[in-house]
Amino acid sequence: MIDQAMVVFTPSGKRGSFPLGTTVLQAARELGVDLDSVCGGRGLCGRCQVQCASGEFSKHNIVSRQEHLSEGTRVEARYQRIHGDFVDGRRLGCQATIQGNLLIDIPADSQVHRQVIRKDLDRADITVNPAVKLYVVDVQQPDMHDPSGDLRRLKQAMTIEWGLTGLNASLYILRELQQSLRKGNWQVTVAVHESGDILGVWPGFKEAVYGVAIDVGSTTIAAHLCDLSSGQVLASNGAMNPQIRFGEDLMSRVSYVMMNPGGDAQMTDAVISAINDLLRAVSTISGILPEDILELCFVANPVMHHLLLGINPVELGGAPFALTTDESLQLNADEMGIRVHPLAKAYLLPCVAGHVGADTAGVVLSERPQAGEAMTLLVDVGTNAEIVLGNHDRLVACSSPTGPAFEGAQISGGQRAAPGAIERVRIDPLTLEPRFSVIGSDTWSDDENFASDTATVGVTGICGSGIIEVVAEMFLAGIIDSEGVIKGDLAARNPRIQANERTFSYLLFQGSQEGDVTVRITQNDVRQIQLAKAALYAGIRLLMDRLGIERVERIRLAGAFGSHIDVKYAMVLGLIPDCDLSQVGSAGNAAGTGALMALLDKDARTEIEQVVRRIEKVETAVEPDFQQHFVEAMAFPHKTASFPELGKVVALPEPSSARPVRRRRVRRG
Ligand code: FES
Predict the structure, then answer these.
(1) 296: Cβ below 6 Å to ligand 1?
(2) Mean pLDDT, residues 144-158
């Protein structure tokens, strides 16, 4: 009589011999196989689902059959009554027992460290290994012979069933505990943070708790609500950052604090209240209660980071740009004023430097330049560009004061990216006639349906990506020279080139009805783009100097601007250095993806904390070469640097004869 059977688990390949009657979950645990369980084998959570492979597996030297598992149990029948039939003949690993040799497959969604593929957040297979986990426990009832308190008996049960020690219970938990135990007939679900803090106790089995990754940008705040067990994003939503009413960009908000005592508290209140609204919104969309949110994970630039925490940001307004802390933070959400579960935790990614924030740490976490050999350039363009360069050997970072031109500000017809804004432009080099499309419609302006297709959005102005394209197309069509001068002699060829006092402009769009906007690209607009791109390129060049390299191998543009910009045009203008265009792309909302990774995987937090400590900071304001790099970068695409890779796909005009470029000091902010 055989009383042992061989069990092989895939995909790990772990194998062992077990007494007949052992549950599959027990066998998996003994072998250290990654099989999930929240309810501890009570047939409640369904996380332990496994699949038996049938056939002869010579590689493993076993014959595995469905009937080598025990018959379906009443507990499994109950589970299926509540949750629907198992797919693909799966069984609950905690109920099915071993009756013969088996090849057991652990599906991806039954693994503790499961991977979820994020499509809507652009990339990254995220490992799900959250800092907050749920455990179901049966607690010994009190009796007259055992005078210990309910909390002690709960802790004992957690140690016996789950091996958890060092648990801490707050007053809130103490107030909840007795009622939860009795309501659940001595069975409760406990949420435990990795620190050992008990965050919640619910009667019986609680299926899920939630976390939210939040990217606090100067303009917008984005939130992604996830199931902390499955890693699925249930809702994403965004809102404008209400601090805009105190100042458009970061430095004007710091100035507001300098000029208005108490201004920092006003801005903290505004952003916290917007976050609370957003949390309510994502909860409603997901059909959950805000009280079921147990963790938040934040990324933000340094000024937003400080204002989020109620820390006065004035030190960030001038050299040496000292942060209160550059370390990651683990806080109670409640003390930040955030209204979700009263014991919810808030994790903030570390800041890199006074001008390079936790948002950049999020981009690094998401893009992982430290993991490979390719010399990778990460650029997050905003009013300050945050730049990271390097590979597994070394990483350097800086920020550069690009100003708001890339966001459509300080441009005559500029506007934020919104429906009606011109975002794509082409100019015929022979006729110098433009065609364009606007956000909200795919129809080009030379299409006969353009007017009807854009009737609801109209043409309202030009956004950042549109400005990049129109200036690049003007350069490629020969309307502006490599020094950025609009060529007035072309006015004779096309009436769109028009004189304005001593300079010229290019008429891109003129509405036919009263009240329609006119979008023209003026000489000053081109200058603003030159200043912004020269600052960006000069920052990148400083980092290349620091690493002693002449070429980068991979470029990722992060943020909203990076998502919409056509990288070819960015290179034509020389925003970024020459690189194989197939290796240049958008990192999408990489900061938000980084926040999500840190929310769902506690090991990702350790990783980014270690990487950020290794990043060498370069302060552009004190680097003597910055001004020289800046001046050289004013030309399109650059005064001295060559662009051989770009030259393979774009016919670049000959540089105009050198004209002295006035030196101009660059100011931060
Ligand atoms: Fe929860 Fe099997 S461990 S159902």
Answers:
(1) no
(2) 92
What are the Cα distances from residue 82, in Å, to 45, 86, 160?
11, 11, 29
Task: State the distance from the centre of ligand 1 to the C-alpha of 56, rounded, in angstroms.
Answer: 28
Atom of ligand 1 nearest to the CA of 45: 1
Question: What is the side-by-side strand order in the sheet with 434-438?
Answer: 434-438, 421-427, 461-462
Residue 375: is its pLDDT beyond 90?
yes
Cα(90) to centroid of ligand 1, in Å? Answer: 13
**In which residue are the tokens 């016919």 written?**
651
- In this structure, the strands spanning 616-617 and 395-400 are parallel
Query: Ligand 1 centroid to 149 CA: how many Å?
Result: 28
What pLDDT was estimated at residue 668? 43
Per DSSP, the residues of 193-254 read ETTSEEEEEEES-----EEEEEEE-SSEEEEEEEETTT--EEEEEEEE-GGGGG-SSHHHHH
Count Cβ atoms below 10 Å from residue 638 Cβ, excluding itself. Answer: 22
Task: Check pocket membership of 39 for ligand 1, CB cut-off 6 A.
Answer: yes
Distance CA 5, CA 99 (A): 7
Q: Determine if ligand 1 sits within 6 Å of the CB of residue 91.
A: no
Q: Cβ(94) to ligand 1 under 6 A?
A: yes
Cα 319 versus chain centre, distance: 29
369 Cβ inside 6 Å of ligand 1: no
- pLDDT tens digits for 84-107? 989 888 999 999 999 999 999 998
Q: 249 with 280: CB under 8 angstroms?
A: no
Q: Which two tokens stand for residue 444?
A: 């080009």
Is any ligand 1 atom within 6 A of the Cβ of residue 268? no
CA of 36 to the centre of ligand 1 (A): 8
| Among the listed residues 218, 230, 253, 290, the one whose alpha carbon sits nearest the alpha carbon of residue 49 | 230
pLDDT at site 122:
47
Q: Edge to edge, what strands does the sheet with 385-390 contain?
A: 584-588, 554-558, 376-380, 385-390, 395-400, 616-617
| Spatial distance between the Cα atoms of 14 and 69, rounded to a whole number of angstroms | 18
Predicted TM-score (pTM) of the model is 0.84
Q: Does the pLDDT of residue 664 top 70, yes or no?
A: no
Ligand 1 centroid – CA 76 distance (Å) = 10
* Tokens (6 digits) for 236: 């994403």
Q: Is 308 in the pocket of ligand 1 (CB under 6 A)?
A: no
Output the CA 35–ligand 1 centroid distance in Å: 10
Q: Residues 601, 595: contact at Cβ < 8 Å? A: no
Polymer length of the chain? 669
Question: What is the Cα 137 distance to its own chain's centre?
Answer: 35
Return the residue whose CA atom lies nearest to atom 4 of ligand 1. 43
Give the integer Cα–Cα distance in Å for 237 and 278. Answer: 7
Six-digit token pair at 191? Answer: 């949420």
Pocket test for ligand 1, best of 29, 90, 92 (most atoms within 8 A of CB): 92
Smallest Cα–Cα separation from 209: which of 44, 83, 40, 340?
Answer: 340
Q: At 52, which amino acid appears?
A: C
Is 184's C-beta closer than 6 angstroms to any atom of ligand 1? Answer: no
